[in-house]
């Protein structure tokens, strides 16, 4: 999937989610809730990485697989893409700019 495809999908997903939750007329509330959702998904990614490192309680390791990390990374990217779509951020341009800046330090 390309970034353009992700951005287009995320824009449609944002519209669908807003309509499903009755928030199509309250963009600020939708953004606030989506931002919270991003935080939730980031927390789940942290948990998956801890499990990957075998640094979780034993009951949280039951049934863990590395596919869980991939799934949580994808959830974080999806939430961020939806936020980008709803705030008018060009995802490809934003990533290119950030990569260029970060590359100076590594």
UniProtKB/TrEMBL annotation:
Highest taxon in the source lineage: Bacteria
Protein name according to UniProt: NTP pyrophosphohydrolase MazG putative catalytic core domain-containing protein
Organism: Actinomadura fulvescens
């Amino acid at each position: 999937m390309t970034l353009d495809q992700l951005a287009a999908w995320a824009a449609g997903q944002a519209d669908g989610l807003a309509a499903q939750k009755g928030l199509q007329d309250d963009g600020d509330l939708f953004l606030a809730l989506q931002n919270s959702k991003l935080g939730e998904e980031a927390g789940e990614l942290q948990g998956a990485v801890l499990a990957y490192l075998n640094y979780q309680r034993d009951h949280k390791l039951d049934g863990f697989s590395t596919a869980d990390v991939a799934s949580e990374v994808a959830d974080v990217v999806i939430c961020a893409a939806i936020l980008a779509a709803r705030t008018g951020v060009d995802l490809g341009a934003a990533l290119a700019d950030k990569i260029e800046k970060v590359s100076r330090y590594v």
